[in-house]
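Problem: given the chain below (379 residues), write out its structure.
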Amino acid sequence: MRIVVVGGGMGGTIFANNLARRVASELKSGKVGITMLSASDKHVYQPGWLYVALGRATPDELERDQESLLEPGIKFFVDPVTEFHLADRYVKTMGGKVHEYDLLVIATGSRPAPEDIPGMKENSINCYSAENALRFYERLDYFKGGRIVIAVGLPHKCPMIPLEVTFTLYDLLKERGLIDKTEFYYTYPIGRVHSLENVAKWAVGEFDRLGVKYETLFNIKEIDGLKGVVRSEEGSEIAYDLVVAVPPHRGQQVIEDNKLGQNGWIPTNRHTLHMEAEHGDRVIVLGDTTNLPISKAGSTTHFEAEVAAENVAAMIKIGRPVRSYDGKVFCFIEAGKDRATYAMFTYNQPPQPKAPNAPIHAFKMAYNKLYWATARGLL
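Solution.
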């Protein structure tokens, strides 16, 4: 069985490693082959960019050689896919190589698209890459007080980042003696401060305690750098001294170019994780690349990849899948410099955030180091 994994991020890596261990004898005998095609030879722990933006980590701490994370027997190539030929079961890469498959796994992730909102790219900071996180921290060095607007676009990667960046930035400015000179103004596109109702209820209590102002039903129309205002589609206008943006995201351009899904999100069965399209029975979609109505988070990808790998191994060994993905997600929520809580939920069970505390924060800091074991599929 020829399995081709497109994407070397968390989803593709956990899937490939988990499967490789489950079918080790079949890999050794040649009955199964696993090939991974990636756009980079590096693997990045993306949630860590928040800590770089706050001066609590450096970019090199968040990066490993991708090949070093893979189980023996997995063939790895830095040669991104440019063409998907689902009817004929092959993909073509930038280097002109053709890879035929019996099963295709697409885990290409997502990308911030600040250019979709006029003025966002030029007039705001964010923490969605090494370059942007370093610029974020540099900009904070020049901030001496004023109004900070948290401007949130949808959909976006990491559901908790608007809250986390607000709370952690609040504590950083408090440490610097600037909190009395600073006003936080948080905006969110729907009728509450977070997409998850119980998380929104918890966050409002935290906002009220800290004096963070907030406005809901605020869909960003533009960020006017000349006049220093953020405008919404609903007609609001907020003056700012600094805009911290959570840009809207899209799937990868190659997905759009191959017309596999609108805005780069591939229609995916919520339980089997197979692509919902002609020839989709031979295609599994993982992580941010799906169009599933759940959080685009690392843990989502992790749990999906485990389910998919177990099912593929079962198909190889007994001819039928054994698990169904239930929408499981687990997200830490940084609530300041040394306090955190978490949200755990499924398709049918909403989250119930607890009061933030130091032990959960310590656990989150430990997980930042343990992530590499997770990528190996060992946790």
